[in-house]
Amino acid sequence: MGFAAAAAAAAYRVVDRRDLGAGLVPPRPGRAEAAPALANPFALALRQQRGSIAGWGAGLALMGSFYGSLTGSIAESFANLPEDILALIGGSAANLVDGFLGLTGYTTAFLASCFAILSVRRLRGEEQSGRIEPVLATATSRAGWMAAGLSVTALGVVALLALAGVGTGLGAAASTGEPTRVPASVWAHLGYAPAVLGIAAIGAALFGLAPRAFDLVWVLVVYGYLVGSFGPILDLPDSAGVLSPLNHVRQMPLEPFAAGSFVALVVLTALVTAAGLAAFRKRDVVST
C-alpha cells in the first residue's frame, strides 16, 4: 500500500511538471541536415525498415533452427501417422524428412510474404499520412520513390529467406549429422524468392492502380497457403491454388528444382511491378 501511494504521488507530480502530450524526457532536436547516407530514397526507405527486417530475420532464423532441429527424430516420430497427415509431409514414411523440410520452407515463404505485404503497405501509409509530399517536392520522382521502397522490400525478402534457410539448415545438420543440409536448405528457401516477390508485386500493382483495394492481396496469400497446405488432405484439384505464386514453386528438397517456373515467376514479377509503377505515376496522390 505504501509503495502504491508513493508511486501515485510521484505520478501526479510528474504530470504537473511535464508538457501536455510530451514524455518524461524532453525530445532532443534533430540534426539540421540529413546525414549523407539518407541522401536518396532508397537509403531513407532502408532506414525506415531496417528494424522490421532485423526483427523478422531473427524470428524466422530462430523458427527455422527449431524446426530444423526436429529432423533427426522426424522419421521415427511420424512414421506411424495416418495417411492423411503423411500426405502433408511427403506422402510416405520414406520421404518424411525431405517432406517436413519442404513444408517448413513453404511455411517460411508464407511468413516472408506477410512481411512483403506489410513492407509494400508502408508506401500506402506514407501516402495517407502526407509524408510523401515533401519527398516528391524535391527532385525525387514518383517512380523513383516507389521503386526505392520496393527495392528495400525485395532486399528484405531475400535476406529473410536466406536467414531462415541458414537457421533451418544448421538445425537439420546438427540433428542429422549431415552438413550438406545447410546449403540445400538455403537454396530451397531462396527458391521461393520470385514467388514472394510476385506477391509483393501484386501489392504494388494494387497500390498503383487501386490503393483502397490494397488489402485484397491478403486474401490471395492466405487462401493460397491454406490450399497449398491442406489441399492434399481435402483432395482439392491442383487448379485450386493456381492463383497463389507460392504454389508454383517446388517444395525442395522433396521435389526437384524447376527452372521454368522460377524464370516465369521472375518475368511476371517484373511485369506486374512495372505496371504498378506506371499506374502510380499517373494517378493522384491521396492523403487523409
UniProtKB/TrEMBL annotation:
Keywords: Membrane, Transmembrane, Transmembrane helix. Signal peptide: none annotated. The keyword Transmembrane applies. The chain crosses the membrane at residues 53-79, 99-123, 144-166, 186-209, 216-237, 257-280. This is Possible ABC antibiotics transporter. The keyword Membrane applies. It comes from Rhodococcus aetherivorans.
